């Protein structure tokens, strides 16, 4: 069974935090040695700020060993930096806790009008957004995904798509929603990210292709967990030429998931046509 596993291929196109659910799945299936999987988790954790999780994994691997001093030091450093970043976004935090403010923000459609309102009424400053993005990213690296979603949502209410951080925020918001399993919101964020990628001019065509390839892989989490995901995967992978081209060019292994969706989604209107179109695509790739 292990020889058919695509985790290694998929992992090349995923944020490291998105690899954890895959490793948990493999652990439950017991197709790999558990020690290898634990070591894999530890290797990934070494590149994050999830120190408590890393310490727990080390204890499972080495139950009689002391926690390394460098891990204890790094943990203290992470807590200190987190506190410092938290202080830098204190005003934003207070605004987020104010229901009246959030309701106003959600009803104002024009970011410029909203920004003017926040500046006038609450002494808000636009340069706070850079600190907000740093804080949300740091929280994400600590594994506090739900906190990250809240701050990134605040950012997206205020900032225009032309902002330098906007694309990174879209990716971060999608990853965070996937990791907290908010599938409806994740689907909305997936669509926003796809629209942004498709409607913006990147430096070169290769960059667009890379963005679409990453989005294809990340979208698997959403499509195979959302109630209407099978319809969406067929529509996006099979009937959007740019994404079908990305699959054929960069990641034909994704056809396995598309085929699964087509086969199990027989109740879909035009299911037979989808199956025929899929066969044509597979034949083209084989050729």
From TrEMBL:
GO molecular function: translation initiation factor activity
UniProt KW keywords: Cytoplasm, Initiation factor, Protein biosynthesis
Annotated CDD domains: eIF3E (cd21378)
Cellular component terms per the entry's GO annotation: eukaryotic translation initiation factor 3 complex
One Pfam family here: eIF3_N
Start and end residues of each Eukaryotic translation initiation factor 3 subunit E N-terminal domain: 5-139
PANTHER family with a match to the protein in the record: EUKARYOTIC TRANSLATION INITIATION FACTOR 3 SUBUNIT E
Protein name as catalogued: Eukaryotic translation initiation factor 3 subunit E N-terminal domain-containing protein
